[in-house]
Design brief:
Distance between the termini of chain B: 43 Å
Chains: A mainly alpha (332), B alpha/beta (615), C mainly alpha (349)
Oligomer: heterotrimer
Order of helices and strands of chain A: HHHHEEHHHHHHHHHH
Helix content of chain A: over 70%
Largest sheet of chain B: 6 strands, mixed
Strand order of the largest sheet of chain A: 1-2
Radius of gyration of chain B: 26 Å
Strand order of the largest sheet of chain B: 6-7-8-3-9-10
Structural class of chain A: mainly alpha
Number of helices of chain A: 14
Largest interface: A-C, 59 and 50 residues
Shape of chain A: globular
Helix content of chain B: 25-40%
Number of strands of chain A: 2
Strand content of chain A: under 5%
Strand content of chain B: 15-25%
Structural class of chain B: alpha/beta
Number of strands of chain B: 19
Chain lengths: 332, 615, 349
Amino acid sequence: MNGFTGFLLRRIAGAVFVLLALSVVVYAVFYVAPGNVAQIVCGERCSPQQVALVHDKLGLDDPLYLQYGHFVQGIFAGRDFSSGTGVVHCSAPCLGQSYRTDEQVTDLILGKLPVTGSLVIGAFALWLLIGVGTGVLSAWKRGGVVERLLTWLTLAGTSTPVFVIGLLLIIILCSTLQWLPFPQYVPFTDNPEQWFWGLLLPWFSLALIESAKYARLTRSSMLETLAEDHVRTFRAYGLTERAIVGRHALRGAVAPVIALSALDAGTMFGSAVLTETLFGIPGIGRQLVESVRTVDLPVVVGVVLTTGFFVVLANAVADVLYAMADRRVVLS
Amino acid sequence: MTPVPAGAPLVEVADLHVSFGDVRAVDGLSFTLEPGAALGVVGESGSGKSASAYALLGLHRGTGARVSGAIRVGGVDVVAASDAELRSLRGGLAAMVFQDPLSSLDPYYTIGDQIAEVYRVHKGGSRRAARARAITVLDRVGIPDAARKSRSRPHEFSGGMRQRALIAMALACEPRLLIADEPTTALDVTVQAQILDLLHDLRRDTGLGLLLVTHDVGVAAESVDEVLVMRAGREVERGPVGSVLASPRESYTKALLSAVPRLSPSPGTEAAGAPPRTPFAPERRSSSNAGRAEDAAEPSTDRATGPAWPAVAEGAEPSPARGAGNCATSHARSAAVPSPRRGSGRGGVGEEPAAGEGLVMEAVGLRKRFGRGRAAFDAVDGVDLHVRRGETLGIVGESGSGKTTLGRMLVGLLEPSAGRVTRTGDVQMVFQDPVSSLNPRRSIGESVADPLRAAGERDDTRIRARVAELLARVGLDPDRYDSYPHEFSGGQRQRVGIARALAAEPKLIVCDEPVSALDVTTQAQVTELLAELQRELGLALVFVAHDLAVVRQVSDRVAVMRQGRIVEEGEVDVVYGEPKDPYTRQLLAAVPSLDPALAAVRRAARREGAEAAVA
Amino acid sequence: MSEALLTTGAGVVATPAPGGRLFWRRLRAQRAVTAAAAVFALLVLVALAAPLLTALEGQDPNAYHPALVDSASGGVPIGSFGGISGDHWLGVEPQTGRDLFARIVYGARVSLGVAFVATLIQVALGVGLGLFAALGGRWADQIVSRVTDVAAALPMLVITLGLLAVAPASIPRPVLITLIIAGLGWFGTSKIVRAGALSLKTLDHVSAARLSGWSTWAIARRELLPALAAPVITYAVLLVPSNVVAEAALSFLGVGIKPPTPSWGQMLTDANTWYQAAPTYLLLPAGLLFLTVLSLTVIGEGVRTALDPRAASRLRVGTRKQNRAAEAARAAEPGPAIESAKSLEEKAS
């Protein structure tokens, strides 16, 4: 158990390091690289005086490390912003203040997270169910018509971008057949039933593509496990094929798949932007696209760091899950 | 389970054929095994011995292999049995133990659960009862604190423990037949002895029938009553183990036995009529003045196998008879004058060479640390050794002893963490694995030419001529420059590897388990080749191996390694004849003997030793 | 960004892949691959010959034809199937009346061009950094591995969106998109190369080459790179479709290729509002995108199978039964090679 705790600590330290490095990179790219931030923020028609004022307000004269220091300080201890008329306190974790609306980025993101979360978690459950199920089935029935069919279906699935499959689903199910209403996002707290119906199509569009990938992954992982020596042992000891596949092969095959899916769920917080755009879901992805259009840098940085946080978190969770399933990992 | 008629044989195989596509793995094999008897199936790789064993449990079913003939195990007609009948046979009536115990167990479940699962498949009953049974059998196979250990997963066990666990699983349902497929091949020699003793005890106590498949004649001699020698899918010879090993009738059996390296020091102890055993002339070892390459009087008259090379008479000088020496290899890799400081005196060898005289390599205080912090450990922990011109130093040890790490440091593939290696002249290496030691994408000629090209030779004609010469020297067709490794057998590939090592014109070649991946007859040929090259070229050899008998046959001096240290070093006759270190004695006692009677005596001695240790 | 299939492991490296001629035979033995290659070749041809094809049709991708759309209904193309006619082979765009064929054909140029160049850069970066990590010593490995970790933690699409927000407008958009896709997608290759090179380094023939006196980079060139080619090529072929999708996704989000340059992703966004009145406008880019990605994926899978030394049985080079038998034979005779496993254990312990 001691080894496991050590492994956990090492993993967390690694995650913290990556996040810090990420913040440096993101900060450098978004605050240092572009031209005149003050001009961008103030707008094309600002007079030089106005621009200078904005420049001052944003503290752009400070050396870079100081600016970054303020930024990091904001995250851990909070910081103050001058709002022209007074001082606004932004409590930790403070990711800054929107250039456009003066809204605090942290609040903005926290408001959007449940939306994206609804989308990702539902799709995640769905794709695991469909993907792993299909994968196991096609590995078990290998060599038959079922397998060939599943192979082609999953190949088609992985080849369809999510915005194409989503569009097609809307057209077929909502427009042509009119089986479903056009999806519209309603918060869960407002009306759980409408929330469900509004997210059904987005869930499926995301899940179909991911599940195609997972079906392939599960299948090859399963075939690899079935070829291992210990499967031969249990065959030589009179276990039924069902017991071998169901207990021994499945456990070995699914462990890496589950770990990877945790990773993908984290990444999904960022890549859900396509689905959000397509279905008009007001999640953090939409927010990002909007902020990119309006060059609202603090929001952009905030969203990038937040999604980065989820990826790092998912990475760590995936590693720990995998190590829990297969204790040999801890040793190496 | 089908009741077995009294007096019927446990296993009856008649005219068994197993073929994989066009390959006939088993080609008309027949044998019987009486209840409680033990049969050893011995053969080299590709002889069909494993395929025969698998057929007994119907394990070829569903794999695409064609099986014909009659197989009855405990009254069950294996060929005609339904899947359900076959399943109750497998593990219930006849259980199998595999070669590699780590991969043969499921890494995700505890040992106890796996055994319990097998038990419940055959005997039913509650989980609790099955767990209890698992602990009982684990205890039976000698796993200490079985109740606690049953909750461990396979990777938490050592190799020997894993094999015990696998045997425990085999015992779970009280089968009448145990099929062991190379059960000790993956294990160290001391652990091998323990497992063989365990199998022996189990047979004695439970009347279990044993079918032992092995490539190692010694393992068979230790364990079975009757032996069946196989070659190319057919039976060569069958009979009581004592008589087959002592006086083989067939020429293949004779050749096989003669190729087996032995621990015995002189031909006098050989069974009468056995052909000369070792490729190495006894004169070598008897001449204890190892400072010289003493092969001038090489008698190559009674050599049974191997190409006859014109013996070049040499004194202490390195060979002047080198081929076109145009490709100047730098011999100045280490120009340091060998330190007069002598290696470890732990071996207690009396003679000392004149300071620095004739040394081709000297290592002082070698240490190699892997890992950092708490995980750090010393694979090699303070080793001193030296190699004199023209001599062979054997380094022997079990897995984890650090012998491979040491070998790699000697040639410079690994940097020592402490200490230093002084080399006079180029040092090359011959590797263990004939598959990975040659780049599959390059022709063997290119591989052999590597040292030449690296030294700056650009002229293709000269390179080809030199490579052809080297290939001929190691007994290969000189015209095969453009052939690829997959066109060669394992032994031939090792020859290519030797040719490549020679191309750099080294003073010393470190051989890391050069024959352990080869069949025993090929082994003998390759060791013989090395000895010949040594005589002709005045080469010094460091021969790293786990096999005590092979080391015995090739070495002038031997160093025994354990846990990164040399526990004993000295003249080979002295170390093998009168071992001083208890570990050396333990190692030597564990080596299987080809004489079943002697094996029984030594087993008894081992048992006493173990009991004494417990008491 | 569609994650290229992740299963391309380094495990393949240790066993040699089949060489040249056998590779092509094994590739051709897969009928689906041949078909996919034909489809893909056609797409490439179309992209290359775009100016020629549009000249043949007599249309310009950026010319407006307001007369061809019904301004009363908001700009629906006049005529059946989106206004297909002898002049406009695939009809016209709603609202603007621009020729669809010309825009699709030029869109293929952008789509494939960006994807190809990005893949080349990714592979070059990945191979270089991967080898550097594996051979450059402990520090090189630490640095590259950490950078890779951070890069892998970047939410790609999000970063790309962010970068596009701050990138100077002076850089041509397709170049910018290519650079960003490439710059954020090299680490897969680098991971494969690093892991492959590290496992190859332990093989005896590489040790032998070191003892021969070759320099590190000579060994990389002679012993490592040829062996790494198989997994890298396999991965690279699967990177192309993933890059095609990445470009389309950015354009779909409205931050990729800027109008008036035609792009399939952008057409999809516009088509979103028109699918009832002008379904061809949606189905053409969607279908082509699907076809491009599918054909590339099938080719990639085919290459993987053809290069996989263990895949012999899945290719019908021999009869099915023979192949299964051969596999069984390999499984049945473990041989004495177990010793090497033992020594590996020793090295690892």
